Every structure is written in structure tokens, then in C-alpha cells.
């Protein structure tokens, strides 16, 4: 899961070109909520739900603990928060490295469930990179997920076709926002989350060298940014003498709308 800046807030960049994640409210990426939901549904549909454990994993600053807490309130069993100042500014490659080592430390699971993309980076590449680092198959952009034993079937929808893919666990799976609405935490879930275990790990805990992550070794970086210009007032077409229809037509034609 990813902790992202609130899209409704006034988002800004730091002087080094990275996103300001301290001066703006953050939250669990909406697209990752679908992944949490699918993980919980798989557990609930299992023959022995009590034998299935859902772990919420997040890499991010101190505030990212809120994203882990949200997943626990939804129903996840335990949480892991990887936080280290050296991670700031990491690109997709470094992020997938940290996530992979954290997954290994948790214990290679049957399924690693991811969202289709983060709402801030929108790269959609981390699940594939994670599968490569874990040396397991991947199924990405699944709109429907079904499991039976160690078998997984997923439906993928594209602009031109729909395909069904099967795989055997362990797997990395990313799901789209078409899998179904994510549940809201209930009052019971919110109270229960306070007693669920959450571990906080640093890079040293994962055995990852600080020199392998961060902005200084990122393969991509933001060189320059400009603020979005203020929205200008639209043109008003008046119909005081019966010429409004022609004026509107001329305006639409000048913009090549008609």
C-alpha cells in the first residue's frame, strides 16, 4: 500500500523536486484500498479463514502509519511500516527493492496484493518489479479475482478484449478499481485495530544499504515545476438582439468543437 498526498489538498513540490509529503495531509491511496478489499475477501471466502493472515505493508514517512492503520480498521490482521529518512525520493526501482526485502522478512506469502497504481505516481510498474525481485509470477490489472486452493484466476479487461489468466501461488497480483468498492471501517473495526500488532522497520532491519535508495540514485527526477495558472473567466455569449445563436455557433466553430 502507498501513503499519498490528499488529491483534494494543495499539493506542492519540495525544492529538490520531490513531492511535499509533510506539509500536506496524506492518506491511504484509494487504488490500494481495492487491493486491501480483495485480500480481505479472499480470507473471508477461505475454507478456514482463521488460518489466513492479511498483512498490510507500507513504505513511507512517519505519517504513513495512518495508511497502515486504515487497512487494519478495514480488517487486516497486522501491519508493517517501513520508515527511514534515506528512502525519501526513491524511484520505482528502489521502492520495489525495499518492498521486496520487507515481504521476505515477513515471510514469502501466498499472495502479494497490490493496487493498479498509486494516485500520485501513477506508474503501475512496482507490482511487476516486485514480482521480479521475489522471483514469482505476476498477474496485473485484474478486474476480477477468484481463488481455489493455490490456484488463482483473474479477468483482465483492455480496450479491445477481455482475457482470463490462471496462476499458481505464490503470486504477485495487482487489481483495478473495477473489482468492487472497498469497505468502510466499522466502529467495531476501528476499535479492534487498536489492539492489532504493527511493526516498524528501518532499512537496517531489512538489510538494505542506504546508498541503494533515495533521490541521489534515482533513475528519474523532476528537473523543474511551475504552478498551474489560475483559471480564467469563461466567455459569456449574450442574446440581447437575437444574435446569440449565431454568436454561440461562431464561438464553438472557432474552438473547433463543431
Give an overview of the whole structure.
- The protein has 258 residues and is an alpha/beta fold.
- The protein has helices spanning 30-45, 65-74, 92-106, 126-134, 187-193, 203-206, 244-254, and strands spanning 3-5, 26-28, 55-59, 78-82, 111-115, 138-148, 151-157, 162-168, 171-175, 198-201.
- A five-stranded mixed beta sheet has the order 5-9-6-7-8, with helices on both faces. Strands 3-4-10 form a three-stranded parallel beta sheet, sandwiched between helices.
- Helix 2 (65-74) links the parallel strand 3 and strand 4 (78-82).
- Helix 3 packs across helix 4 (126-134).
- The mean pLDDT is 92.
Count of separate DSSP helical elements = 7
Strand content: 15-25%
Shape: globular
- Which residues sit in consecutive blocks of at least 5 with pLDDT less than 50? none
- What is the β-strand count? 10
The overall pLDDT, averaged over residues, is 92
Amino acid at each position: 500500500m502507498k501513503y499519498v498526498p490528499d488529491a483534494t489538498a494543495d499539493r506542492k513540490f519540495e525544492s529538490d523536486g520531490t513531492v511535499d509529503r509533510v506539509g500536506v495531509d496524506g492518506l491511504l491511496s484509494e487504488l490500494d484500498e481495492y487491493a486491501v478489499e480483495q485480500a480481505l475477501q479472499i480470507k473471508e471466502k477461505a475454507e478456514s479463514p482463521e488460518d489466513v493472515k492479511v498483512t498490510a505493508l507500507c513504505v513511507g514517512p512517519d505519517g504513513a502509519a495512518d495508511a497502515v492503520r486504515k487497512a487494519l480498521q478495514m480488517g487486516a490482521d497486522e501491519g508493517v511500516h517501513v520508515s527511514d529518512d534515506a528512502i525519501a525520493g526513491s524511484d520505482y526501482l528502489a521502492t520495489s527493492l525495499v518492498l521486496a526485502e520487507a515481504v521476505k522478512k515477513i515471510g514469502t506469502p501466498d499472495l502479494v496484493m497490490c493496487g493498479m497504481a498509486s494516485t500520485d505516481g501513477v506508474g503501475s510498474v512496482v507490482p511487476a518489479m516486485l514480482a521480479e525481485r521475489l522471483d514469482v509470477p505476476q498477474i496485473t490489472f485484474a478486474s476480477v479475482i477468484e481463488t481455489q486452493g493455490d490456484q488463482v484466476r483473474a479477468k483482465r479487461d483492455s480496450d479491445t478484449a477481455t482475457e482470463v489468466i490462471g496462476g499458481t501461488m505464490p503470486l504477485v497480483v495487482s487489481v483495478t478499481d473495477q473489482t468492487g468498492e472497498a469497505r468502510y471501517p466499522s466502529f467495531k473495526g476501528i476499535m479492534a485495530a487498536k489492539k492489532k500488532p504493527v511493526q516498524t522497520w528501518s532499512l537496517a532491519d531489512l538489510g538494505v544499504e542506504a546508498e541503494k535508495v533515495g533521490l541521489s540514485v534515482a533513475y528519474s527526477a523532476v528537473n523543474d515545476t511551475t504552478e498551474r495558472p489560475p483559471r480564467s473567466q469563461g466567455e459569456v455569449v449574450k442574446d440581447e438582439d437575437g444574435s446569440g445563436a449565431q454568436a454561440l455557433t461562431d464561438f464553438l466553430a472557432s474552438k473547433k468543437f463543431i
